[in-house]
Amino acid sequence: MKSMRWMGHLLCAAMLAACTGKPAEPATAVPVLVVQPGQPVGQAPATYAGEIRARQESPLSFRVGGNLVKREVDAGQRVRKGQLLAELDAADFALQARASQAQLQAAEADLVRARDDLARYRTLADQQLVSRSTLDQQVAAFKAAQGQANAARANLDVLRNQADYAQLRAPADGVIASREAEAGQVVAAGQTIFNLAADGGREVLIYLPEATIADYAVGQPVQVELWNRPGQRLPGTLREIAAAADAQARTYAARVSLDPAALAGVELGQSAKVYSTAGRAGTLQLPLAAIQQGPDGRTSVWVVDPANATLKAVPVTIGAYGSESVPVLSGVSATDWVVAAGGHLLRDGQAVRAVDRHNRPVLKAPAAPAAKAGE
Fold first, then answer.
1. Do the beta carbons of residue 170 and residue 196 sit within 8 Å?
2. Angle 348-338-334 from CA coordinates, rounded to 5°
3. Whole-prediction pTM value?
4. For residues 159 and 63, is the Cβ–Cβ distance under 8 A?
5. Where residue 336 sits, what CATH number does that domain have?
6. Does residue 151 sit in the same domain as residue 113?
């Protein structure tokens, strides 16, 4: 009975309110910050972190294996072309060369004997004292002795070269970027001992995302900003793009060459940022905070309906995320007013008051509905 009385009271109150003819109080409009896609705030260039590297980087190694007995330079040290960097124990190479020298002397002695024998047999053959086949055998013996002498001489040259290979010298002027071995270590042929960053060109190594790799090509101009010189951008050119993406990161390694006039003060290993506007002409951009995740899992944005100043969720297709903005490929136009921040606190159909970054209204307030006659 008590519940019936409460329901009766509520119905009476509703009827009295209807009889007064006063409309229900509208919901309070919430102020929201809005932007239009394509405004300068959304057209920031793509930014990539990079590192200053030498254009020519050479891993240096011995052509033969052995015990590393001397290391003459360290990481960070400047070297000149032909300068001795490291040395292997060459005692075994010297012994092998001496053995090869003895083999060469024996082969040359056999060659002299075979040459003398051939000369005698030719004289005897001219006098018809020996057969023609016997002379042919001496010719073959002489050629065999000559071949053995040539092989021994070549083997001696190889062993002498190996003795020279026991010394590792700088192939060009530059800086030792890193050291990979220490004195006393037994190293194999081809094992990296030093990494040499040759003098000359300096480049920035960056990694381009797979989603936007089609926007880039060799020769495109970019700008480089060093971390220790903020605000100062150096001219550069995209010189090289890897043919295949990294198997794990799915990014393409790229190198940006710096203008020769901008190399002053650029040191190896410095951090840098590369700015590029490639592929952004005519592409709408929105701030990262404007992108929302809809209940169905699709990417969407809040768009203000100019007719009644209410919100509606609009699905969009976006490109690769940048540092401050994201390209919008479809879903909105350049004239739409999109909520730039705080979208997680809003709901579909909510009344809002759209303002710009200077807190100025950007849409006219919707006109109040006309009163009906007799009300």
1. yes
2. 135
3. 0.49
4. no
5. 2.40.420.20
6. yes
